[in-house]
Specification:
The chain is of the alpha+beta class. Helices cover 31% and strands 32% of the residues. Strand 19 and strand 20 (399-408) form a beta hairpin. The longest helix has 19 residues, at 276-294.
Length: 434
């Protein structure tokens, strides 16, 4: 079904940039970049340094109704590599929930496609993986990419006028309401998010992504183009990976800023690692993830491999926990996705109660934000990120959006939660305001 060719690259980073520019000619494109130069300590379970999938042969685009069942049917029917995303609102497929808030970005609830052209890079080795009927185009494509020169912007970028959907005063009030839900026992923790947005925004999505990726260089960066919809993601978080019978989930809870001065930076990192509130946030979500994974796991296989591990990225320090499990050989990754989605780090505990309260207090539909982007292989393996630290852009309506959030617990101080949101928004604000 596919023809594979391996090539040794003289300059992998230069080839990646040219490949991504060359691929903009296609309507469907997913690029996943683990930024290995910056993330050696963060890449224990990463299979590829860089993946680019483009030029759809077939596609699945649907709303949330029976979305996971449709995805499983599509996976079986193609029996091939498929790339795409799951929006947060697929929660309505797996639970008795609704999404009542307005949607301004207008991404379909689920979108996957089967690429004709696939590129994998590990170290300096490129693997071109083409469907057989276009395999005769491999050599000419490679030579074109190697000599590709990106053209200038067709339209002048208009500096977006970024606004907040929720005022600071309203945000503090809403966190107060969430704290009340915690005090009366409705929930223990919930992830509360707010949107930053711009209307009539004209940007170059690729150039904006390149700036964002350069600023943050996270292990789960992603660029997605599906017709008029774009995702520019600097995500540091893995939602779920399946490799054979092993499942890996790595929720993030706990954030601290970086400092240029080394001594002060180390002090902030140590403070984060020992912070009682941050650790309790992480541990609550760890318990939720363990419970979710147990729904498909073989008996006794759910383990916490690392609890509250400290990881440092360009912008922030984070606490990351690694939870693993094993499934039977005939367990589909879609079953694991369906029984763990949405991810615990973006919802709260108890999960369903938290999602109901989130929908009441937030003012926009989350859509792809706090959803997931990734791939499923022909063997049924998969890797999916968490869509955070990401810009969503609808080129047709010129609507640009990015959301940030924090975990609200009984120990939360509303002002501190607001400051954490601004810290997480920093990189996105920087790239869109340049």
């Amino acid at each position: 079904m596919r023809h594979i060719k391996e090539i040794v690259l003289e300059s992998p980073e230069d080839f990646k940039r040219k490949l991504l520019s060359w691929s903009q000619q296609f309507d469907e494109l997913v690029c996943l970049d683990s930024n290995p130069v910056f993330n050696k300590a963060n890449l224990k379970y990463t299979s590829f340094d860089f993946i680019l999938a483009t030029d759809a042969l077939t596609a699945l685009k649907t709303d949330y109704i029976e979305a996971f069942d449709k995805l499983e049917e599509y996976r079986i029917a193609t029996n091939d590599w498929i790339f795409g995303y799951l929006t947060y609102d697929l929660k309505n497929d797996v639970e008795e929930l609704t999404s009542s808030n307005p949607d301004f970005v207008l991404f379909p609830d689920l979108y996957f496609f089967q690429p004709k052209r696939l590129f994998f890079i590990n170290g300096n080795i490129l693997e071109m993986n083409y469907l057989n009927f276009i395999s005769d185009e491999m050599e000419s494509d490679f030579n074109t990419i190697l000599n590709f020169s990106a053209q200038g912007e067709k339209t002048e970028a208009i500096l977006p006028n970024i606004q907040t959907r929720i005022s600071k005063e309203s945000y503090l009030e809403k966190v107060g309401q969430m704290l009340h839900h915690i005090q009366v026992g409705n929930i223990y923790e919930a992830n509360f998010c707010q949107e930053f947005y711009a209307e009539e925004a004209t940007i170059n999505p690729l150039k904006t992504f390149e700036k964002l990726n350069s600023i943050s260089s996270p292990p789960f960066a992603a660029f997605l183009k599906l017709e008029e919809h774009y995702l520019l993601s600097a995500s540091p978080e893995r939602y779920l990976k399946k490799e054979g019978v092993k499942i890996v989930s790595q929720p993030i809870k706990g954030t601290a800023r970086r400092e240029k001065e080394e001594h002060e930076d180390e002090k902030l990192a140590k403070t984060l690692q020992s912070d009682e509130k941050e650790r309790s946030e992480n541990i609550m979500i760890t318990d939720l993830v363990r419970n979710d994974l147990s729904r498909t796991a073989t008996r006794g296989s759910v383990q916490v491999e690392e609890l509250c591990g400290l990881y440092s990225f360009k912008q922030v320090h984070q606490l990351i926990t690694t939870v693993v499990s094993e499934v039977t050989e005939n367990t589909s990754v879609v079953d694991v996705l369906k029984t763990t989605f949405p991810m615990g780090s973006m919802t709260g505990a108890p999960k369903v109660s938290a999602m109901k309260i989130i929908d009441e207090l937030e003012e926009t539909k989350r859509g792809l934000y706090s959803g997931s982007l990734g791939y499923i292989s022909p063997k049924g393996n998969a890797d999916f990120n968490v869509v955070i630290r990401s810009i969503l852009y609808n080129q047709e309506t010129k609507y640009l959006s990015f959301s940030v959030g924090s975990a609200i617990t009984i120990k939360s101080i509303p002002e501190s939660e607001y400051e954490e949101c601004l810290l997480k928004a920093k990189a996105m604000l920087e790239v869109v305001n340049k």
